[in-house]
Amino acid sequence: MKKIGIIIDKYHLNYKVTDFLKYLKSIAKVKLYVDESYFLISSNHHFDEDLFFTKGKGDIILSLVKLIEEHTNIPVINSFKASCLAINRFLNSTYLRKAGIPVPDFSLNPKGVTPPFKDFIIKNIVDQGVYKFSPIIMEENGNKRVADKRALDEVDGKEHQYNYLYYQKFIKSKWEYKIYGIGEDVYFYKQLPVLINPNKTESREKIEEISDLKEYCLKAMEVMDIKITSLDFHKTQDGQFFLTDINCTPNFNYMKNGHKIVADYLLEQARN
Amino acid sequence: MNVGILSKRTTNLAGEIKKFYENKGFNVVIYTLENLSINENLFNNDFYILKSKNLFFLYAGFFLKANNIPVVPNPQVSFMQKNRIQSHFLLEKADLLTPRFYLGKSETLINQLDSEVFPLILKPIMGSGSKGVKVINSVQELKAEDKEILYLENFIKGLHYNVYFIDNRICTLIKPPLSNEHADMKKVNTPKDIEDLIKKWRLFLAESNLFGHLDIVREESSKDLYVVDPGSFPEFTNWKCSSSPVKEICNLILNQVEEMKNKLNNDIQHTRVNE
Fold it and tell me: What is the ipTM score, two decimals?
């Protein structure tokens, strides 16, 4: 039996992987490395897993992934590069646009300096600690302005970290297109945008393949070295898609048999 | 030529660099954390100098480089020297000795650290120099209620050096332990093993290593050299090996920018031919 290490945080362990772990344990040996209690020693490189899977994005998880990559040949899904780029909205926007994937205009500005576009959403720069998206919606002189509370807290609140805000041009879209990439396979869903209906699953429906989105998804995965992901796209009135978000720890429970698809993919990678 | 300098301050070395290029007839703007917005407006300059490793200057560096604007020093290499974990693995990859580190939540560290590993040095994960650095003598000095992730490094007892390099020139100083670059230091002749170490480091980072510094400790019993802190753009406050290093640094940067632009033009031509 192949041995798979799961590098995970308590949040995902408690709420997101019950079915996945149950199934994975039936087809592979599983060892858990839990972020909140892991003791990392830089000289300890002894791992006997055939593959690691990351389900979390904290600094201890990222450091452990880096250590494994530097000192072993064991594949890690998702890699250090993939996770670091996926959690950093500014960096992934930069590199995805460079690769020719349409992303909304973006700007990183000191607090108080508005970006060079009128409708915008303020997002947290590094999407790492707090998972809940709490939008604050404002209309100013007919312009749409949305702010994620997490981003404001990082500048003004208790979680103060810095004086910069990440602005993304707001793309009005009837639907949010939720695309999952698992290895070379791409899965297509759509739902009402979270700002319209916070209950993600209520309006979610499976849709036919959209070739542009498949191309963007596979290209983004290649550029960012990401093997398992979900991507959010908005579509303008003239039919242009824009990638608004990329995630390295997607909730595959929203897909039919998602837990099984991911576990089977991991096992296949462990065998290669 | 239009030059941007990404720097926390407009004075000191950044100010001197600005003056040097202005005397050559260049237009120079220093971008601080107060006036830096990272978007297409930055494309007005021909090249940038990444003087500070503050995260937002690094972001600007990544953004500019991705858009084919030359940035010196290389933002990726500067970032890796700013992040302790990445710099540890970078130094290991360069085949240099660097202290072992321990990482975890404070509660985990309290429960798992053996008493014989102390003293340790507590350092911020993102940082360089001596800011936030503290010696921890026993597990009792760690607070269990601290929710933050702690990075602790083995304390190497021995002689501390601050070693600058600009191109092939090396300037070696003995420094007080855990002090920053600006402390009072004594210049010494560069020992052969330190010279070799610097050569190895520069060779490893290739063109990304025009200048910089390393904090090195010679371990008192083995005499082995441990690199405890790399730096990509020091202030050169204690450069005591010739006249001001500004001219040399500025000329090295200009040469590298020229090479980067030539390479970029070649790449563009190559792409056009293939199309």
Answer: 0.93
